[in-house]
Amino acid sequence: LTVDSVASIISSSLERVRALRNEVTAQSERLSEQLRTSVLDGLAHAFKTPLTTISVASAGLAEVAELPEEQRGELLGLIRKEAERLNLITEQVLRTARLEWDKVLTLTCVNLRVLLEETISVLGERAAGKIGIVQQTERMTIEADRAVLKIAFEQILENALKYGDPGVRVTVLVAVQGSTATISIHNHGSYISPKEQQLVFTKFYRSPTVVHRANGTGIGLSVAQHAVTAHGGTITIRSDKGEGTTFVITLPITEEEGES
Length: 260
Prior knowledge:
The chain is elongated and about 100 Å long. The chain folds into 2 domains: about 1-105, Helix Hairpins, CATH 1.10.287; about 105-250, Histidine kinase-like ATPase, C-terminal domain (Heat Shock Protein 90). It contains 6 helices and 7 strands; from the N terminus they run αααβαββαββαββ. Helix 1 packs across helix 6, helix 2 (about 50-65) runs antiparallel to helix 3 and helix 5 (about 145-165) runs antiparallel to helix 6 (about 220-230). By secondary structure, the protein is of the alpha+beta class.
């Protein structure tokens, strides 16, 4: 009788462990699927700008029969540059599509300033001379998936440039407190009401106050939030009608300094 009772207890405990393990696995798969979908959305969203540039440059070459050699060379160079950018984005899409459920993120030591500078470079003419980085700390290394985090920064910086006052620089402030890195991206001129500060992270949501100011799909900030959350971080908004809007990203930081 004692053996039967113990066996029954063990069997019941094992069943609960199996149920819990299945539940954790299912939840992990759901989160992985959400992240992968968001990353693919972001990469697809990134196709739009180079395609538009190539289309416009090609139209210019086709419509003007005799362009000066210098202008013709500039347009051809622009088409080549954006075609290369599309190729890189395509590689990212394919890499993301091949990711296994338990390998959504490929973590390496990444220097935040270097990554931000690379992101600004990717934005090209839209960001040239329009974004300033203020570094308040020497510790800049975090453990992150370089490609995924770059997508998040690109979406937020592009958003800040798009809706800020023309001619006013976007400020990126990087600071560290304890084991947390904080990246604050501020533009002047935009305002997001408290009611909308969570809605803007909803896929396809676009505020009625800005829908006519600039083109957009409402995907970018949703992608950014998923990417930041996957890294164990948070993203919040501070907004004031007089001061503008700041997106505040927090990320865990590694103990030892390194660069990638």
